[in-house]
Each structure stands twice: as structure tokens, then as C-alpha cells.
Design brief:
- The chain is of the alpha+beta class.
- The chain contains seven helices and ten strands.
- It has a four-stranded antiparallel sheet, covered by helices on one side. Strands 2-3-4-8 form a four-stranded antiparallel sheet. A two-stranded antiparallel ribbon has the order 9-10.
- A hairpin with a 3-residue loop joins β3 and β4.
- The longest helix has 20 residues.
- It starts with a helix and ends in a 7-residue tail after the last strand.
- It binds zinc ion (ZN).
């Protein structure tokens, strides 16, 4: 289960509530060599010493990235976008067996982080933030669906100029928004009743409006319901959001028209869709 914009925001808000002012007394890294090899963890493990004796000033998220800001010009960047568990422990007993990083606070509480698949865990000084690929990608000028500047007028205008498919408009390195993945894309275009390969400039006003609405619905409902159903929050509590379309609909029928759900490849990813409601 990937942790995307809604889930990253939930975790950051909870961490912000729980961890501000806590002093990091100790840390432990385990089982990290693979992450390090693929560039998702500091090459020099000693960089994590920067965390010691620092206090947490705030925790924020943008896109899929969580940024823990410390009071000594250092940040812990947590990017669990391919999945993972970030858990807060009031007591030391019953810690998860598999972890990548454990932070022990002066008040004897703990935070553990375990990433699955790929994912970033980096200690970065403020002066080096701009060199971080994930930071540049998510803490950038590209709009987040949650930004006030993301309005229907802005979006319609933008779509009318885009002669490429809606997948590349919404997902990936050329996307006009941050934080949307292939998984969110399937859910969004099913709700908007759009053919997965339609071009932005070919959308009429009603379709562009439906797309805007669906983006907002999916992001906000995922936040309101505590994240997607496979996600667990800082307290180990499961999310309740079930996507209207996605791998969870494999072998099922469309709740609107009863057609069999089909799978099809768009822009380097498999997506599920309803061939009737999302006709080309
Ligand atoms: Zn249908």
C-alpha cells in the first residue's frame, strides 16, 4: 500500500500534534543497506547523528513527502510512497520487529519507521534541501490539489491547452499537480466517467468540471476517512477509504451499470476501468 498525498498529510498532522518539542535522544538504523544502495538513505550513516539532541519544531507534508523539521537546521525527510509504517509508541514494549529507523525521545516515547519497497529516509541539512530530488519534486511550485490556487477556472484553462493524455497531465514527472499516482488516477477518472486515454484539450467543459470535482473528492475523502483501507496511521489505526475503482475492483462489476470491470495499460501502468461508463 502506497502512502500518497492524503496519507502523508494524515501522518504529518498526527506527528505534528504528538511530537512537537520532543528531543531526540537516540536513534537506531536497521536493515538499511538496500535502501542506501538505491540512493534512498544517506550514503554516510553518520549524517543521522545530526538528529541527536535536536528538538522537533514541526512536521509538514506536501505531495507524498513528509518533512520533519528540527531546531538545528536539519530535516528528516520521510517518503514512504511505496508503502510503509510510521508508528508512534508511548511505551517501549511491543515494538514492531521490522524497522528501518527508530527515534527514541527524551521522554521515553518512540517513533519507528519501516518502508516497504522503495522509499526515502534521509537526514538533510536546510542548506542541502534543494539538492534532494524528492524535496524538489514535492516542495515545488507545482500545485497540490489542496492549494487554494487549484481552482476550477485555473484547471479548465490549463486543460484546454494540453494536447496530451490525462494520465500524463495528472500523474508522473510532467504532471500539473503533485501527489497523484496511478492508483488515485483510476479512482478519479472512473468517478468523472472519462476514457483513460482522452486528451486534456479534448475534454469539454462538463468533463473538465467532472475531473476537477473527482480530484477533490478522492483527495478529501481519503483524508476524511483516515486514508486508504490498507494504510495504518501513526497510532496503527486502519484507514477506511475504499477506492471506487482500482485493483480492488478486479473481477467485479461496475456499481453504476453492471458491466464487467476491465484492465488496460495506459502510460506505463495498468489501470482498471468500466468500458461502458468510461467509453472512448
Ligand atoms: Zn459502468
Amino acid at each position: 500500500m502506497s502512502i500518497e498525498l492524503p496519507e502523508a498529510l494524515i501522518l504529518a498532522r498526527q506527528m505534528n500534534n504528538e511530537l512537537i518539542g520532543k528531543k531526540i535522544e537516540d536513534y537506531e538504523l536497521r536493515d538499511y543497506e538496500r535502501l542506501q544502495k538505491i540512493g534512498f538513505l544517506n550514503k554516510n550513516i553518520k549524517d543521522f547523528d545530526l538528529l541527536l539532541e535536536s528538538k522537533i519544531s514541526s512536521v509538514i507534508a506536501r505531495g507524498n513527502l513528509i518533512r520533519m523539521i528540527l531546531d538545528n537546521d536539519t530535516n528528516l525527510l520521510i517518503g514512504p510512497e511505496y508503502g510503509g509504517k510510521v508508528l508512534y509508541h508511548k511505551e517501549i514494549k511491543k515494538l514492531p520487529e521490522k524497522i528501518h529507523l527508530k527515534l527514541a525521545f527524551a521522554d521515553k516515547t518512540l517513533l519507528t519507521i519501516r518502508l516497504t519497497g522503495m522509499g526515502a529516509l534521509k537526514t538533510v541539512k536546510n542548506s542541502d534541501l534543494e539538492q534532494s530530488y524528492l524535496y524538489q519534486r514535492d516542495f515545488s511550485d507545482t500545485l497540490s490539489p489542496l492549494d487554494e490556487a487549484f481552482t476550477i477556472d485555473y484547471f479548465q484553462e490549463l486543460l484546454s491547452t494540453m494536447k496530451r493524455g490525462i494520465k500524463s497531465i495528472l500523474v508522473g514527472k510532467d504532471a500539473v499537480l503533485i501527489g497523484l499516482s496511478n492508483s488515485a488516477f483510476q479512482d478519479i477518472i472512473y468517478r468523472a466517467k472519462l476514457f483513460p486515454k482522452i486528451k486534456g484539450s479534448n475534454l469539454n467543459e462538463q468533463q473538465g468540471g467532472a475531473l476537477f470535482e473527482s480530484i477533490n473528492t478522492v483527495v478529501n475523502e481519503r483524508i476524511r476517512l483516515g486514508g486508504k483501507f490498507q494504510f495504518v496511521d501513526l497510532y496503527g489505526k486502519k484507514g477506511h477509504y475504499i477506492p471506487a475503482m482500482g485493483p480492488n475492483m478486479k473481477g467485479k462489476t461496475c456499481s453504476e451499470c453492471n458491466s464487467g470491470i476491465e484492465k488496460f495499460s495506459v502510460g506505463g501502468g495498468q489501470i482498471y476501468y468500466c468500458p461502458h461508463c468510461q467509453e472512448g
